[in-house]
Design goal:
288 residues; Endonuclease, Chain A; 3 domains; 12 strands
Length: 288
């Protein structure tokens, strides 16, 4: 049997003679009603998004986190429910449907699928995702697309009565596209919530001729204090060697770094940052 491109609509494949009924039952499984994938497949979010659109009879518009992923946002799990703007109140498991109003300029084509525009996607993600997770999703979308915050606020004015708009406005005040991971967003929000001045993200550290050699996750340039989140990839041998060179370069230019890893207590992190900032302020005063 010739393998079929998947996901596909089962009844269409049978009608076109591309697969027989017994082959459909024995070699494929329904991911959603009448939408099939190979029986042993583990579909990615992109494949599940295509399957959800096929389930809608090619009528729905991809929205929310799935739309953000289509626009290039990272850190969205493959198992994330696919949001579809479509008038069906009984979606199968793995799909969330909404009956939202979408204006013509709020829908675009992305890799062959109708999806909410970047601006509309930011609007939906910010209003429908609670707490730090909403800011994290906005950060990821902003990092991938550089969306215009003013345009999102204009859209919020257009849809002023839509649920979640106050949440969106608040999330946008904390959004920073310089965050390159959810943990960086978490760390930045932790610092701001503790009362520290809002840190700048992706701070360039330059060489003697002014070229940016490295970038710091976040920090305060006036006192040369940086805070960085180190993920598991820093434990790899090649990355560890690069980290040594990077650390020496940054230290030679007078920066103090607070390095944060998974499992550290928030109080401990905040105490270390406070002590580094105090040391930085004292050094700045002596230099002045």
């Amino acid at each position: 049997m010739r393998a079929l491109a998947w996901p596909f609509i089962g009844t269409e494949a049978i009608a076109a003679g591309r697969v027989r009924k017994h082959q459909l039952r024995s070699h494929y499984r329904p991911l959603f009603p009448n939408v099939y994938v190979p029986i042993d497949a583990s579909p990615t979010l992109s494949q599940r998004t295509t399957a959800a659109w096929l389930w809608s009879g090619r009528q729905g518009v991809i929205a929310g986190a799935a739309a953000a992923a289509l626009h290039g946002a990272r850190w969205i799990p493959d198992a994330e429910p696919v949001e579809v703007v479509w008038r069906n109140a009984r979606p199968p498991a793995g799909i969330v449907t909404r009956r939202d109003r979408l204006d013509a300029d709020e829908v675009v084509q992305v890799v062959g699928l109708p999806a909410t525009s970047v601006t509309r996607t930011a609007f939906d993600v910010g209003r429908l995702t609670r707490g730090h997770a909403g800011v994290s999703r906005l950060d990821a979308l902003g990092n991938a697309t550089g969306f215009d915050v003013a345009a999102v606020l204009q859209l919020a004015d257009r849809h002023a009565g839509t649920p979640g708009v106050p949440r969106l406005r608040e999330a946008l005040t904390r959004h920073d596209p310089g965050s390159e991971s959810p943990r960086e967003t978490w760390l930045r929000l932790l610092l701001i919530g503790a009362g520290f001045p809002r840190p700048r993200t992706q701070i360039p550290v330059r060489d003697t001729v002014g070229r940016a050699r490295f970038y710091l996750d976040m920090g305060w340039e006036d006192i040369r204090v940086a805070v960085e989140y180190d993920g598991d990839h820093h434990r790899e041998r090649a990355m560890f060697a690069d980290d040594i060179i990077r650390a020496e370069f940054i230290a030679e230019r007078g920066w103090r770094r607070v390095r944060v890893v998974a499992g550290q207590r928030e109080a401990e992190i905040l105490d270390r940052v406070a002590r580094a900032r105090c040391a930085g302020v004292r050094s700045d005063r002596r230099a002045g």
